[in-house]
Amino acid sequence: MTNTYDAIVIGAGAMGSAAAYYLSERGQSVLLLEQFELNHRLGSSFGYSRIIRYAYDHSQYVELMRDALPLWFGLQDALGETLYIKTGGLDFGPAYDSTLRATVDALRSSGIDHELLASNAANIRFPQFNFADDFKVLYQPDSGFIAASRTVLGCLNLARANGAIIKDHTAVETIRVDADAVEVITAIGTHSAGKLIVTAGAWAKSLLKQTGIHLPLTPLRCQLNFMAPTDMFQYEAQHCPVWIAHVSALFPETVYGIPSHGGSGFKIAFHGGPAADHPSSFSREPDASNVEDLRPFMRAFIPGIAEAPVRESRVCLYTVTPDEHFIVDAHPEYKHVVIGAGFSGHGFKFSPIIGKMLCDIALNGSTPHNDSLFKISRFAG
Ligand SMILES: Cc1cc2nc3c(=O)[nH]c(=O)nc-3n(C[C@H](O)[C@H](O)[C@H](O)COP(=O)(O)OP(=O)(O)OC[C@H]3O[C@@H](n4cnc5c(N)ncnc54)[C@H](O)[C@@H]3O)c2cc1C
Q: Relative to the CA of 14, which ligand 1 atom is closest?
C-alpha cells in the first residue's frame, strides 16, 4: 500500500528536521524518514554545541545570519527553551591572514558591531588566551553557540505537534521521480508525495545518484575533543568566548573551540579531517593522536588547557563541497525535488533559515532569501 503526503523529507538531521517543521507550519502533510534513531551520533548534527556567528569572510553569510537570527528567536519562543547561548566570539590569527582580513571587511561593510584588537590588549581582556605579538584579534559580541541536539529534537517535536509523521529506523532505499510526484521505497513500505526534500547529509551523494545527479560532495571524518582543566571556571561559557584560530599557515588546519557548559568540557577541534567516498568507510573510534596534534596549538595559544586530560572525544562528519558553500536548490531536472546538502562544516548556525529556504523552494519555486551562492549550476561541467 502507498501512503501519500504533500511532502516527504529524507534525513532528520539539523536541516531535515527544520525543513519538516517549516513545511508543517505551512499546513503541509509531511513524512520525515530517518535511517537511524533520532538524534543519532553517526551524522553531522549530534552534540552539545555548534558555533553561531556573524563573523564570516563573505558578506552573503553575514546577511544570511541577519535572516537566521529572528528564526532562532522564533524557534526558542515556540519551544519555550533557550537554544542560543551568547558568549561573544573571537577570530584570531596572524595580521596578514586573508580570511581574518576579509572577515573584518565583511562585518564592516554589513554594519555589524565588532572590535579589532591588538594582541597585547586582547591578552589582558581574554586571559585564557596567549595571542602572539603579530596577531590581530577580532571580537564580535553576538557570537555564541547553539544547543545542537536540543535544536534537532525541538524541531522534530514542533513538526510532530503540527501533524508531521516522523519515522526513525526507516532508510530510503529507492527514489522514483516522475513529472510531478515522487515515490520513495523503504524496507517497510512505499510512500508518495508531490514534493521531496533530500537532506541526507554525508549520504546525499550516493542517494541522489538514483535521480541522475552527481554532486561533488565529500564526507570528512572530523574529531572533536572536550578538555577538562582543573580550573574549569575560566573556560566556562559565562567567562570565555567561542573562538576560531586562523592558523592554517602554522598548523595543519584552522582550529576552533567552544567554552564548557553544563559540564561538557572545553571543546577544541581541527576544522577538517580525512576524506572518504562514503560515510560507512570511516572508523567512529576517536584517535588519541588527534588531541596530541592539537597540544602544540594549545601550548602556544591556550596554555591553561594544554596539559589537561581529555574528558571525551567524538567523531562527527562534515560533507564538503569544493568551494565550501552550501547546496540549497531544486534538482536540475525535477523542480519538485529540493536538495539541502554540502553544509561543509559550517551549516548548523543557519539550520532554521535553510529549513525555511528548502520549504520556500519546494512550495513556491524560489526563496526571498539570498541563495545565489548555493546553486547546483555552479558545478556545471
Ligand atoms: C564536529 C563538527 C563540528 C561542527 N561545528 C559547527 C559549528 O560550530 N557551527 C556550525 O554552524 N556548523 C557546524 N558543523 C556543521 C553542522 O553541524 C552541519 O552542517 C549540519 O549538522 C548538517 O546537517 P545535515 O542535516 O545536513 O546532516 P546530518 O545531521 O548528517 O543529517 C542527515 C540525516 O540524513 C539521514 N539519512 C541519510 N540517508 C538516508 C536515507 N537513505 N534514508 C533515511 N535517512 C537518511 C542520516 O542518517 C542523517 O540523520 C559542525 C559539524 C561537525 C561534524
A: 25
